[in-house]
């Protein structure tokens, strides 16, 4: 099982590295822009985990949490509002997926990673059944539910100082 989504890891590394290498000659802003472009290609309701159509909840929740914390930590250093807009949009994409998976109090729906690994076709042509499992008091998954809650909490902190009109993504 894969443990981290490559695109989300790239964006986090990009955010963390930009500020650490402010004096370097490398163009980290350009690297971050390309990271956002790659990440946007992984979108389909939530973020895909790899080249197939898997969306693992725990790695996704962890990566959204880390992306949110990176955005919070380096808020002052990310002076390009377009890049901040892309970072927040990437966070929002993940949180929207979690909100859709949380259909009622104490319920979180998750996919079946094993069957999803067998689908290696374009998402537009996908006919593989999308089995889902319900996490609740009778079907435990506190690790995933806890990390999802952490992702949502960190994301709310990342969005707190901004209003929608402030962030324009071109």
Summarize the structure.
By secondary structure, the chain is mainly alpha-helical. Helices cover 52% and strands 7% of the residues. Helix 1 (6-20) runs antiparallel to helix 2 and helix 3 (57-73) packs parallel to helix 6 (142-159).
- Biggest β-sheet description: 2 strands, antiparallel
- Total domains: 1
Oligomer: single chain
What's the arrangement of strands in the largest beta sheet?
1-2
Q: Give the CATH topology.
A: Glycosyltransferase
Number of helices: 6
Question: Which percent band covers the strand fraction?
Answer: 5-15%
Give the H and E element order. Answer: HHEEHHEHEH
Total beta-strand segments = 4
Evaluate the radius of gyration: 17 Å
Envelope shape: globular
Protein name: cellulase
Domain Glycoside hydrolase family: 44-161
Organism: Hibiscus syriacus
Signal peptide: 1-24
Provide a descriptive summary of the structure in words:
The protein has 170 residues and is mainly alpha-helical. It has a single domain (6-163), classed as Glycosyltransferase. It contains six helices and four strands. The protein has helices at 6-20, 28-41, 57-73, 81-101, 113-116, 142-159, and strands spanning 43-44, 46-47, 108-111, 132-135. The strands form two sheets. Strands 1-2 form a two-stranded antiparallel sheet. It has a two-stranded antiparallel ribbon with strand order 3-4. Helix 3 (57-73) runs parallel beside helix 6 (142-159). The longest helix is centred in the middle third of the chain and has 21 residues, at 81-101. The mean pLDDT is 79. Residues 1-24 form the signal peptide. One of its GO terms (biological process) is cellulose catabolic process. Residues 44-161 form the Glycoside hydrolase family domain.
């Amino acid at each position: 099982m894969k443990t981290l989504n490559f695109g989300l890891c790239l964006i986090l590394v990009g955010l963390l590295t930009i500020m650490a290498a402010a004096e370097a000659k490398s163009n980290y802003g350009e690297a971050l822009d390309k990271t956002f472009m790659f990440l946007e290609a992984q979108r389909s309701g939530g973020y895909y985990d790899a080249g197939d159509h898997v969306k693992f909840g725990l790695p996704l929740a962890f990566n959204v949490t880390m992306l949110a914390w990176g955005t919070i930590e380096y808020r002052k250093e990310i002076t390009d509002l377009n890049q901040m807009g892309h970072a927040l949009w990437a966070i929002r994409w993940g949180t929207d997926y979690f909100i859709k998976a949380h259909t009622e109090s104490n319920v979180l729906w998750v996919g079946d990673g094993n069957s999803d690994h067998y689908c290696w076709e374009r998402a537009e042509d996908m006919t593989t059944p999308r089995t889902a499992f319900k996490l609740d008091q009778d079907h435990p998954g506190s690790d995933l539910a806890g990390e999802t809650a952490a992702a949502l909490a960190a994301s709310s902190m990342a969005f707190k100082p901004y209003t929608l009109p402030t962030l324009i993504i071109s």
